[in-house]
Amino acid sequence: MTHLAMSYAKSNTSGIAVLNNLLIIVSAINATVETVSKSYPCCGFPEIKVDDLEGCEQTWRSAKTNIADYHPDQLAHPPECQAPCTNVSSGKISMDRCPNVTLKTVCLDSDGNVRLDEITDYTANKDHCPVTPEAIGKSVPNSNHDQSLRHRYFGLLAAPLLFFVFIVLVIKLYRAREAAIINFNHIKVGDPGANGPGRSGASVTLS
């Protein structure tokens, strides 16, 4: 009788474990991850800001590689950031260029249950970026278009300076040439100042 009771208890425990596993599997199947697509302005050094992510785990990916991680418990999990990420905080990432990035957000409630599990795909948008000297000064280093604009502005600013330097050099060369001609003429006619006091620069021939 005791043996039968123990066997029943064991089978009952196994049944409960199997039931719990089934409930977990069903919950995982029913828990769908919401996917959202958005764009962000690629002007200068871009930033992406997301509101209401306090207390949420945030993972940023680009080209299937993690570029930043933020965890609410920063002591146990310090923020991680690698290129193109330059800085990461809760709901914000700063970058040195404009890649397409994906944000994975997981938020828990006070009971430790998942209240938000979301994936957001961000696409860079350059259509509304004004082409101004201020924007060019903050342009992205890896952008060939912005580099071309910077070189063009540099050429426009450098041309007057180079022209001024050229004029100064021409004037100096002209003055140096005039001074050399004057000195040569003084020596040729026997300038007393050139050969010492009381002496003439003209040669005397004795017969």
Report what the structure shows:
The protein is an alpha+beta fold and 207 residues long. Among the domains are: 33-126, Immunoglobulin-like, CATH 2.60.40.10; 150-194. The chain is built from 4 helices and 9 strands. The protein has helices at residues 2-30, 133-137, 144-188, 192-195; strands at residues 34-41, 47-49, 56-62, 65-70, 80-81, 85-89, 92-95, 101-108, 114-125. The protein has a 6-stranded mixed β-sheet, with no helix packed on it. A hairpin with a 2-residue loop joins strand 6 (85-89) and strand 7 (92-95). Mean pLDDT is 74; it is low at 2-6, 22-31, 133-143 and 198-207.
Ordered list of secondary-structure elements with their pairings:
Blueprint (H helix, E strand, L loop, with lengths): L1 H29 L3 E8 L5 E3 L6 E7 L2 E6 L9 E2 L3 E5 L2 E4 L5 E8 L5 E12 L7 H5 L6 H45 L3 H4 L12
Parallel strand pairs: 1-9
Antiparallel strand pairs: 2-7, 3-4, 3-8, 4-5, 6-7, 8-9
**Mind telling me the C-alpha Rg?**
40 Å
Bulk shape: rod-shaped
Examine the secondary-structure arrangement and name the CATH architecture of the domain at 33-126.
Sandwich
Assign a percent range to the helix content: 40-55%
Return the structural class: alpha+beta
Query: Biggest sheet, open or closed, and with what strands and sense?
Result: 6 strands, mixed
Superfamily (CATH H level) name of the domain at 33-126: Immunoglobulins
Arithmetic mean pLDDT: 74
Q: Which strand order do you get reading across the main beta sheet?
A: 1-9-8-3-4-5
Straight-line distance between termini? 161 Å
The fold-level CATH name of the domain at 33-126 is Immunoglobulin-like
Strand residue percentage: 25-35%
Query: What is the CATH class name of the domain at 33-126?
Result: Mainly Beta
| Low-pLDDT runs | 2-6, 22-31, 133-143, 198-207
Element-by-element helix/strand order:
HEEEEEEEEEHHH
Number of strands: 9
Q: List the total number of helices.
A: 4
